[in-house]
Design a protein that fits this description.
Blueprint: H1 2-6, E1 12-14, E2 34-43, E3 52-56, E4 68-71, E5 75-80, E6 86-91, H2 94-111, H3 117-127, E7 133-134, E8 142-143
Parallel strand pairs: 1-2, 2-4, 3-7, 4-8
Antiparallel strand pairs: 2-3, 5-6
Helix pairs in contact: 2-3
Length: 152
């Protein structure tokens, strides 16, 4: 991670899909990496008219090493069936979330081609929507935000 960052390449990693402190496992404990936890959307109450909330997806690693949350529950992705025909499949986990953050980093780098890896990380964490994720168990980690700065 240090060598990639030194070469100007931001490193985005998944926090892990275990109910454990991400600081205790790799790659979540890699200094310099942007560590991503998975979030999911659920209704605040069983009532079908209830407000939707974002929460840390069950089983997602947590802790102070998690930098940001992104969607990671029931992400529809291209896949192949048993006969190798193209299909779609729902996937869940922090690896799905890391893909969203990688895309956000790519968009930032497109607009700021001379950005350092630390400025990419700072942008992702500072523009995240804080106090949005229910039960994050990750102080300071907000929900990934990609969009106009004026709307945020």
């Amino acid at each position: 991670v240090q060598q990639l960052n030194a070469a100007g390449i931001p490193v985005i990693v998944s926090a892990g899909n275990m109910e454990i402190n991400a600081c205790h496992v790799s790659p979540g404990n890699s200094p310099g990496a942007i560590v991503v936890g998975a979030s999911r959307v659920r209704r605040a109450t069983p009532d079908t008219t209830a407000t939707l909330v974002d929460e840390r997806a069950p089983g997602t690693a947590y802790g102070p090493c998690v930098d940001v949350f992104a969607p990671g529950d029931s992400v529809l992705l291209p896949s192949m069936d048993a006969q190798h025909a193209a299909t779609q499949q729902l996937w869940t986990g922090t690896s799905m979330s890391a893909g969203y953050v990688s895309g956000a980093a790519a968009l930032y780098l497109e607009a700021h081609p001379l950005a350092t890896t630390s400025s990419v990380a700072a942008h992702i964490t500072s523009t995240a929507t804080h106090d949005r994720v229910v039960d994050p168990r990750s102080p300071g980690a907000g929900l990934l935000y990609v969009g106009p700065a004026t709307v945020h």
